[in-house]
Amino acid sequence: MSKSIFRKKSVEKILHDVECGFGDGEHPGTTTSQLKKELNVRDLTLMGIAAVVGAGIFSTIGEASFQGGPGVSILFVITAITCGFSALCYAEFASRIPVAGSAYTYAYASFGELIAWIIGWDLLMEYAIGNIAVAISWSTYFVNFLEGFKIHLPRYLYTDYFTVFSAHNDVVNFTASHQLSKITDVMRENAAAWDSAPGIGSLKLVANIPALLIVLIITYLVYIGIRETKRATNAMVYLKIAIVLAVIVIGFFYVTPANWHPFLPNGFGGVMKGVSGVFFAYIGFDAISTTAEECERPQRDLPRGMIYSLVICTVLYVLISLVLTGMVSYKELQVGDPLAFVFAKVGLHNISYVISISAVIATASVLLIFQLGQPRIWMSMSRDGLLPKVFSRIHPKYQTPSFSTIVTGFVVAVPALFLNLTVVTDLTSIGTLFAFVLVCGGVLLLPREEAARGKFHLPYINSQWIAPVIYIIVLVICWNKFLGLFSAENVHEKFPFFLFIILSTVLTVLAVIKKLSLIPVLGLLSCFYLMAELTYDSWIRFLVWLIVGLIIYFTYSYKNSVIGKEADAKTK
Fold it and tell me: Could you give the CA distance from residue 365 to residue 240 in angstroms, rounded to a whole number?
C-alpha cells in the first residue's frame, strides 16, 4: 500500500488526458468537456495583479513602515525577489504541465498521489477561507464607501449573526453586574443592531447581505464563462491601477524629503520585522496557474504573466511606500488605514473617497480570481477520481466547470453571510506557503529531462556552497530564538521554529550532497522561515484540516483513484 499511495501520474498521461477531453466524467472525449481557450499574456498579467493587489496591502504598508521607516521600500524589493523564487518554480511547472490543477497536478507528477491529495485538500481550504475573509472585508469597504455618500445601511444588514448576538449578551451581562465601563462603543452598536433587527419568532434576521451579494455576482461571472470573467477582471484592474497611480502622483506633491531621513531608523533588523506581512502582500500570483487550460499559449504565456505581474506589483508597492513615508513621519503610520490617514493629515480629505473606491474594486478583483481558481482545483481532483465525477462536469454552452463553480459559491457565500472568520485567516497563509513548498520541492524532484517540454526553464545554479552560507547567516540572525529552543518555557509555541531548524538543516545537507539547483532551494528556505513565523494555533488548525482530508482520502479517494483502478486492471 505504501507504494500505491505514492503512485505518480506521468506528465505524458496528464497532458494526454486533457487533450482527449478527459476532464468531464459525463462527456469524455468531446469538445464540450474541455475548457474554452481565451487568455493571452496580457490577460494573465492583469489577473495576477488583480489577485495580488488587494485592499489589505494598504494596512500592511502602514505597519511595515512603522517598524522599518522609509527603508521599507527596500523590504518590498527583497520580498519580491524572495517570493520570486517560488514564482519561478510555479512558472517552470506551468510551462512543463499546462493543466488547471496548479500545485495539485504538479505534486501528482513529482511527489505522488497522497501528497497531491494533501495539497489539493489544502488548496481547497486556502481558497475557501481566503474568499470568505475577502467577501467579509469587501462588505466593510462597501459600507464605508456608501457612508461617504451619506447612505447608511442598518447594521444588522452587514454584520454577522454571532458578533451582534455576543454583543447583546455581553451588554446584558455587564449591565446586570453594574460593569458599565466594560461596554465599548462597538459593543453597544452591535447590541443595538440585535435589538433593532427584525425577527421570526425568537430568531433574529441578522446577516452580512453585501458579502452574500458580491459572492453571488462573482460566482455568476465565473459560471457564465472565462471571457466574461476576463473582461470584468481587466476592467477592474485598469481602474484599480489608475486610482493607485493617481494617489501616488498626488501624494508625491506633498512629500517632504526630510521624512525620508534617517532612511533606516531602526536598522536593517527593523525593516525585516515586517517581512511576514509584506510577503503575504504578494500572495495570489499562484492562482492564475489554475487557468492553464484556458490559455491560448499556456507554456509561453503563464510564466510571463506570473513574472510580469510580480514586477508591476513590486513597482506599485515601492512607490506607495515611498509616498507614505515621505508625506508623514513613519512614526505616525501604525494605523489601520494609513493612506486615508496621510491624505487627511495634509488636508486632502476628499481623497479618502477615491481610496474607498479603490478598496472596493481591489477586494472584488481578488475575490474574482480566487473564485475562478477554486472550481478548477475541484475539477482536477475529480478527473483523477479523488472526488466524485460530478465535480468535473463542464457546462456544454459556457465551457466552465459548472457544478464545481456552484459548490464554490455555496461554500463561500453561506459562511460569509453568517460568520466572522477573521480568527482563522492565518490558515490561508499557512496553506499558501505549504503549496509553495511542494512546488519548489517538486521542481527539484521532477527529472530534468522533463524540462524540455516547457518553454520556460529555471537557470541551474549549483547551491552546494551557497546554501550552507545562507543557512549560517539565517542561524546567526535567529541565534537568540535558536537558544530559546532549549528553555522549558512555552515549549508548544516553539514547535514551528523547531520544525524550521530541522527542515532547513536537512535541505542544506541535501543541497551540498546532491548539488541541488539554487532557486528552488532558496524558495524552500524562505517558505520554511515564513511558516515558522506563524502561530502554533495556526499549525494545529492546519493539521486538523489535513487529518480530516486524510480520512476522506483513505475512505473514498484511494479506492476511486483512476490510476489506481488502471493499475489494478493491469494486474488482473
Answer: 9
Cis-peptide into 396, omega within 30 deg = no
Mean pLDDT of 432-449: 82
468-500 pLDDT tens trace: 999 898 888 777 777 776 676 666 677 778 888
What is the chain's Cα-based Rg? Answer: 24
pTM of the complete model beyond 0.70: yes
Domain boundaries of the chain, sorted by first residue: 4-14+38-150+211-448, 162-206
| C-alpha–C-alpha distance, residues 477 and 472, integer Å | 9
Whether the Cβ atoms of residue 28 and residue 22 lie closer than 8 Å to each other: yes
Give residue for cell 459600507.
143
The reported pLDDT for the residue numbered 25 is 45
Percent of the chain surpassing pLDDT 90: 23
Q: 65 with 324: CB under 8 angstroms?
A: yes
Phi, psi of 486 (to 5 degrees): -90, 0
Per-residue pLDDT tens over the stretch 520-570: 999 998 888 888 877 777 788 888 889 999 999 999 999 999 888 887 777
Q: Are the CB atoms for 427 and 129 separated by under 8 Å?
A: yes
Backbone angles phi, psi at 200, to 5 degrees: -115, 100
pLDDT 10s digits, 323-371 = 888 988 888 887 667 877 788 788 887 777 787 788 888 889 989 998 9
Cβ count within 10 A of residue 308: 19
Q: To 10 degrees, the CA torsion angle through 209, 212, 217, 222? A: 170
Mean pLDDT is lowest, of 138-142, 405-409, 503-507, for 138-142
Burial of 205 (0-12, 13-18, 19+ CB in 10 A): exposed
- Provide the percentage of residues in the chain whose pLDDT is more than 70: 90
Per DSSP, 456 falls in state -
CATH placement of domain 4-14+38-150+211-448 = 1.20.1740.10
pLDDT at 9 over 70: yes
> d(Cα 234, Cα 43) in Å, to the nearest integer?
7
Cα–Cα distance between 550 and 558 in angstroms, integer? 10
Is 496 in contact with 543 (CB distance < 8 Å)?
no
Element (H, E) at 203: strand 203-204
For residue 99, give the nearest of 410, 485, 392, 422 by alpha carbon: 392
pLDDT at 32: 52
> What is the CA 459 to chain-centroid distance, rounded?
27
Q: C-alpha distances in angstroms, 359 versus 54, 141, 235, 346, 416?
A: 7, 6, 15, 21, 18
**Distant-in-sequence, close-in-space partners of 47: CB < 8 Å, separation ≥ 6:** 39, 230, 233, 237, 287, 288, 291, 305, 309, 369
Q: Are 101 and 377 in contact (CB under 8 A)?
A: yes
Burial class (CB in 10 A: 0-12, 13-18, 19+), 384: buried
Predicted confidence at residue 491, as pLDDT, reads 67
